[in-house]
Amino acid sequence: KTGKNLVQWPVEEIKSLRLSSKQFDLEVGPGSVVPVDVGSAAQLDIEAEFEINKESLDKILGNASVVAEAEEFSCEKSGGSTVRGALGPFGFSVLATESLSEQTPVYFYVAKGKDSELKTFFCTDTSRSSVANDVVKPTYGSVVPVLKGEKLTMRILVDHSIVEAFGQGGRTCITSRVYPTTAIYGAAKLFLFNNALDATVTASFTVWQMNSAFIHPYSDEAVRALSRT
Predict the structure, then answer these.
(1) How many domains would you assign to the chain?
(2) Are the beta carbons of 114 and 71 closer than 8 angstroms?
(3) Residue 226 located in a structural domain
(4) What range does the domain containing 190 cover?
(5) Is the dihedral of CA 74, 202, 46, 33 positive or negative?
(6) What pLDDT score does 229 carry?
(7) Does 223 fall in a domain?
(8) Lowest mean pLDDT: which of 15-24, 33-42, 188-197, 211-220?
């Protein structure tokens, strides 16, 4: 739709691994962290759309005292999901412990530009993904185009130590390898958060529990046939 993005999206067969699902419609105010009751959150498929409250948007865009930061902001150098701006960050913390001592936030950050236009960034912050000290834990992401009239949408695939995030239908994609020590199997939790200073956000999303992809090994006959070729 943008005419200039290479779109990436999970293969359709991923849907065949979906098990039970839950749907949610939640309004989250500034500074909120909400646990999402889906049971074990070690293997999930999440499809979500977000909408910033119009009153919040109008107030911020019309307020000259709100800093224009879109030109300077970047996911990698911003300090991650704990750094609060007028319109973000907001999204999900996946592979999280109950206490949030381990968590991997996937989020949007909407920034006001000097021309009062909005610029949207899609990021994954792995800085708190593990309490282990011997792993690299950067923040990834980039700007993602949002066309007029579109809601902010994301899809997240969680698979134990891999988090794949797709923003705006795959215009921006982030694959992260994380190494939680406690947020594993049944102890892995899911949270919805809104760290914006001033904006209320509405989140509508579906969460599927995912089955394992059972990989069938080659038979001895098939291996012999392959070796002959």
Answers:
(1) 1
(2) yes
(3) no
(4) 12-211
(5) positive
(6) 66
(7) no
(8) 211-220
